[in-house]
What we know:
By secondary structure, the chain is an all-alpha fold. It contains 18 helices and 2 strands. It has helices at 3-33, 38-45, 47-65, 69-86, 93-121, 125-144, 147-150, 165-173, 179-185, 188-203, 223-229, 234-263, 271-287, 289-318, 322-329, 332-350, 356-385, 394-415; strands at 387-388, 391-392. Strand 1 and strand 2 form a beta hairpin.
Amino acid sequence: MKSPVRARLSVMMFLELFIWGAWLPLIFGYLxxxxxxxxxxxxxxxxxxxxxxxxxxxxxxxxxxxFAAEKFLAVSHLVxxxxxxxLAWTRSFWPFFSLMLVHSLFYVPTLSITNSVAFANLENAxxxxxxVRLWGTIGWVAASWPFVFILVDWTQVPAFGSVPFVDxxxxxxxxxxSGAALHEATRWTFVASGAASLVLAAFSLVLPHTPPxxxxxxxxxxxxxxxxxxxxxxxxxxxFVVTFFDAxxxxxxxxxxxxxxxxxxxxxxxxxxxxxIGQVAEIGTxxxxxxxxxxxxxxxxxxxxxxxxxxRFGVFALAPYPSVAIAAxxxxxxCYAFFFATVYIFVDExxxxxxxxxxxxxxxxxxxxFGPFVANFVWPLLGSSLTTEDGVDFRRLFLVPSxxxxxxxxxxxxxxxxxxxxxxxSR
Length: 427
């Protein structure tokens, strides 16, 4: 593996996750400020789910068999970038939903296509993918921290130079916008996301050429159907079911953590950076993922990843204190790397070469699609039912996803039994 190629793949991952990380953490509080009701909010958030479904059946099929991956990325990020950028100035439901849907339709497939580009150009994917993918995590973190200053209420901060620098900095970092002002400033998340998308559109043209994979003789005409046929294999079906529940629980984290952190005293301008601690922890976890897979194997590594959700939500429910909650957020590294990233590597290991993009799309359909789609209705509804005059009862709320994750981990431990070597392709 030539280092310049790996460097380009790392930049690709950095920008890819910067786009998403710029807007996702705060949108759950931003949508209500526009006057959208709960159903409208769910449909806007489910633009990703709809795009995952479409991507599995059409976009990834197109990328697998008919289009060079780097050109697919360039076009997708150009169109998707313009759409997400436009959301900064959109206030009505139908235009907002339409633009989010357009962005999602073009962006979601790129999450699996970037994986495919990396796998196709890494000599040892099992060893090197984690090192490349961790730059995506760095990109997510990089998108979060500038908002510590963007969301500061500068009208309450002394003029620079009028007080000692340490006092000025402390006042700036501790003075967040709130209410309508905080929500108005949140629109800059879409500007940051759109700008990164346009940069990646241009950068995609210098990525390694990754040609389409033609279907071999006797292969299914549609790559997505070939991938779905593999659900007949018991261990693949078990992983499919567990991935749905884990993705559902994972989405609950994003839906409610913003409100939870503010309810225990975290200021609004610090919510994104505090949540990004999970991604910082993910960097270290991704760096040792190859070692963990070698020592623990597929099943134990994935079980630990799912249990990370159970522990994190359990801590949120039973110890709702800022320092303890922040420590629990660090478990995100285990939740993501040991399960989701491992699933992507597992798919690349066990699925046929000419359908790997579609196989990645099949699991992306759960991770970004069906799991979050159900979650975007279930968890807000559960939260509403547990809301009193004092606010949401987060203790009772978070015990539910904790229990779901625990049950999924047990199911995975008992029934997921992949072979030592790749056999799926011939089944």
